[in-house]
Request: fold
Amino acid sequence: MSPDLPAYRRIADDLRVRIQSGEFPPGSTIPTQQELTDQYKVARMTARQALAELVNQGLVVSQQGKGTTVRDVRHMVYRPQAEFEPRISAEMDRFMAQLSQDGRKPSQSIDVAVESAGPIVAARLGLDIGDPVAVRKRVRSLDGEPFNINDTYYDFKLAGDTAIMNPADIPQGSNFVMESKGLVEVRAIDEIYIRMPNSEEVSRLNLGAGTPVAMHVATGYTADDRPVRCDIFIIPGDRHVILFERIHNRQDAPAATS
Amino acid sequence: MSPDLPAYRRIADDLRVRIQSGEFPPGSTIPTQQELTDQYKVARMTARQALAELVNQGLVVSQQGKGTTVRDVRHMVYRPQAEFEPRISAEMDRFMAQLSQDGRKPSQSIDVAVESAGPIVAARLGLDIGDPVAVRKRVRSLDGEPFNINDTYYDFKLAGDTAIMNPADIPQGSNFVMESKGLVEVRAIDEIYIRMPNSEEVSRLNLGAGTPVAMHVATGYTADDRPVRCDIFIIPGDRHVILFERIHNRQDAPAATS
DNA sequence: AAGTGGTCTAGACCACGCC
DNA sequence: GCGTGGTCTAGACCACTTA
Reply:
């Protein structure tokens, strides 16, 4: 039962324990690479490898010239239901109050474009890859720090001549603009994928190493099952909790077929 | 605008492009460390650093003696609503059919214990940290490969003398056992956290480097807002999509206060 | 046995932040 | 300037897989 771990693993495990024990609280600086090479009698590359472990696990961040510090994770609430289901229970209120971060200034930038549908969007909107789609690209920030990305796609044939193409903020919410075309969204399907960010997402969201993201794909439908819009959200894992609330349906009804 | 990237980044970016272009399809072997040192005229450690990038982004996996291969990601559907909301729309059916993987053999192991409540569970069940809780720990597997972890917690004072403490599978679903105590779950709140796995999760789920997980905390409530159970699911990002379906509530009702 | 990736060394020089 | 982490080299030996 002596696992005989490599040196860099022993160092990493040791530091992890010391961090979790509170010896190095969030925001504090852990030993430098030089200190680790001295204390553990290893080459600097080995100490670096130990630190790389912790960085990739999202526990610490290294900054050139400054040192390596313990990460502080504080979660904002991300609630997909908020737009269409304003009613929340008392329990939900409690969670939101516990988890939300107040006193920070929200802002967002909006960018509107016509693009060719990629595979994800095309499949959700019932289009062919390459068909034109109207996109509203938003980056939401908090205190100037980018917080999440939200790209909303519409079939250009349907949305091309609506207020959706206006890069300004749409007062009553862009989800209601399509109703002028007779497309009333009554239902949505949420898909959540967990993965590491690609390089574009890293730079747009200013993500550190070891930060996974959720890709949330929300597709809205009319009562007669036609897709209205497809939203793609990129949610950095180190800054968000995703929240849902469900009312149970205890009648064992068969799956809808009509 | 010449970014002047370090060598390992150029190599990593180059390989990433070649992988995404289809030159190296999922499952195929990418150039060896030796080949990279020759082709890019760098030291082996530099080639290794390039590969480490791709590993930590979840794009490839390295195996001693075998080589480095492109990862194949195929998503199983994970649908938190399944237990209590069997009714699904035609659109949902379409998604499930598209995304699910058939022909694989599911199995699960169940382990029952009484433990002390940790901070997460205690807060959800309205207990103090250290209070006794009944736990049903499940590992779900597919073709013998562990797929996800599901630990269900109950207040021991309420569940101690029910069928929940039976390590066998509970025919009608363990969520209905608490009803014998007058605790009928009518609502649930889902919290989803995105993060890198801890070492226990890595070994229990046999996770490769660069695989993030979702921690799904589901808390069930009675009609009078008492918590009934707290489920903690660990969902590996490389094997799951999380799916929700929502029916919009367009009456702008005020938040519940009663 | 040959080839793969994993670990480790002992140096070097560079880029960044702070005093 | 000094200390921090970032990049890079040219080797070495080990562990695992395949043939």
